[in-house]
Amino acid sequence: MTVYANSATTHVDWERFLARRTQHMKGSAIRELLKFTQQPDVISFGGGMPAPELFPVREIEEACNYLLRAVPKQALQYSTTEGYPPLREYLADSMAKYGIRHSPDNILITTGSQQALDLIGKIFIDPGSAVITGRPTYLGAIQAWRAYEAEFVTIPLDDDGMQVELLEDVVKRTPVRLIYILPNFHNPAGTTLPEDRRHLLVEIARKYDLLIVEDDPYGALRYTGEDLIPIAALAPERTIYLATFSKTLTPGLRVGWSVAPAEITQRLVQAKQGADLHSSTFDQMIANDVAQRGILKAHVRKLRQVYKERRDVMLDALAEFWPEGSSWTQPQGGLFLWARTPESIDTLKLFPRALENKVAYVPGINFYPHEDGGFNAMRLNFSNAQPDMIVEGIRRLGAALKDELAHK
Ligand SMILES: Cc1ncc(COP(=O)(O)O)c(C=O)c1O
To answer: Which pTM was predicted?
Structure first.
């Protein structure tokens, strides 16, 4: 039997050795909440997880077999920080179709987009630096940049995403390091920034000479409407564009990328060297193989069809089972919608009751950098559960809400 060291017997006051910045670090509330949802009978709308039954397992197995047979010495070796060149070429080509025309040299492969957010924090954020985000915004960005002691300056969202009209007034008064924007199928809000707001954002960024971080993990997963021009296509000189294979292929591979002006990419490369030298060579080569063989494209087509159905099932179930006074966004793509309950409900307090009803979600407050909103809101994921489970989960949530309202 293995005997593990028992830290309880010899106490070391290790907290006094911690760097000051750790005071700003917090565990992800979502990951904590999700621990409760692991039981198989809980229907979880909590995580941002793709449908696991759709993972292209056989095709990934083929890619692994091929790589280990044909190029094992390369696939299992250290590689360059910038990333696997054929993959960067593929990505440059595929982004050009959306109007993002950068050379493969401007692309850095990252260990998921989450790493890109961290590296951006590492090179741009000093303690107290102002960063503009939406209110609400992606929790992982808050977590990454809080560690660098960012000062979050927030702009409210409406059903069309960030209210960019309010931006100029803020940047006029505050020196800002970054504007963080999620234009397509926002996490958590499910909103899409219309083209006029994209143009206005670029106009303001140019007028005040600002940098934009465009986080776009969901752009390829559009179910209704037309693709809109990326901000990186409108303002390539000042936009860092982030994307990932996590939602379109599998998150377990941990392959994402950034594309940015050359000077910024160079800095990100330096920051990444200190973090992990490079992203997994093998994972990058698998992603590249699957993408080059056309499997990714076919897979995304399939995802669009399946997730569109799941989104519609969730929207219908909300209309059927939720109490009067509730409302929700109508996402054109992505994995989430944002649901508002009647005002008197506190979704954080409702969470234990929902868990008793065997259903989970993420309370809205978690997506507010200053925890100053989202009290009667929640993020609901519609990609992970199968349609009958979505209906049942929304019914259970509706029952929990009605129960809570009856006891007010
Ligand atoms: C907006 C946004 N950015 C970044 C990420 C991180 O994705 P990954 O690190 O898996 O590429 C996510 C994941 O949910 C996300 O929703």
So the answer is: 0.96
